[in-house]
Amino acid sequence: MRPRIRLDIAARPDLGDPAFMRAVGWSLPVSAFAGVLVMVWTSGWGGGWARLAGVLAFVVVLVLSAGTAMALAGGSARGLSSFLAPSGGGSPSQDDWSYEKSLLARGQVDEAVSALEVRLANHPDDVALCLFLADVHARNAGDAARAERLFLRARETPGAAKAHDYQATTRLIDLYLGPLDDPARAAAELGRMRTRHAGTQGALHAETALKRLDPSL
Fold first, then answer.
1. 3-state SS string over 31-67?
2. Higher pLDDT residue, 28 or 94?
């Protein structure tokens, strides 16, 4: 039995990914304001303690606000990886699919999938929606084949951003190394990640995974 290799590209923040850096940029002003406010409020503790409290407040608010930005990215409902699915490309979604997410939370997967498929039929150029639906098929509905088609469709949609390509490629690698068990196509996607997204953490992981698949590379 062939050992499975899992490439967890989204396990840590990717400083090379533009969506991640945008969210950090959004968070910095709020975090800086919170840090200054806490320093003023704790000034009676002494200069050293006030500065320490300000730094801690800055870090905590940065983490919380960046986490909120990740959640609002709305691409894949999986922590940091939702950062990889910014809105944009074609007709943008008008919400964060809260109705469908509530169905998923109640275990009504078929109903959620049906509602999302209708949305996508009405907005065929919505890349973020396509990525989200693909992820639902892969993670909730257990339909890896449909997920594969949607991830491929998302990155081929006119107007798809490089961040969309990054997310779709990451998830295709997971599918080919996992439920679809297709090492040849996994290697092709790893090669795409390595070349198209050179310099990112995903490309570094892809390099390692390719060597595991084929030590001659």
1. HHHHHHHHHHHCHHHCHHHHHHHHHHHHHHHHHHHHH
2. 28
pLDDT in tens, 36-73: 676 666 776 666 766 776 677 766 666 676 665 554 44
pTM of the model: 0.59
Answer for the pair 126, 160: CB distance below 8 angstroms, yes or no: no
Strands (E), the chain: none
Question: Domain extents for the chain?
Answer: 11-73, 86-217
Kind and range of the H or E element at 147? Answer: helix 144-156
Separation between Cα atoms, residue 103 and residue 114, nearest integer Å: 11
Tokens matching residue 9: 């590209």
**Average confidence score pLDDT of the chain:** 78
Looking at domain 86-217, its CATH architecture is Alpha Horseshoe (1.25)
**Per-residue model confidence (pLDDT) at position 180:** 97
Which residues neighbour 76 within 8 Å (Cβ) at sequence distance 6 or greater? 82, 84, 85, 131, 132, 135, 167, 171
77/29 Cα distance (integer angstroms): 25
- Residue 216 backbone phi and psi in degrees, to 5: -75, -15
- Res 29 pLDDT > 90: no
DSSP state of 82: G
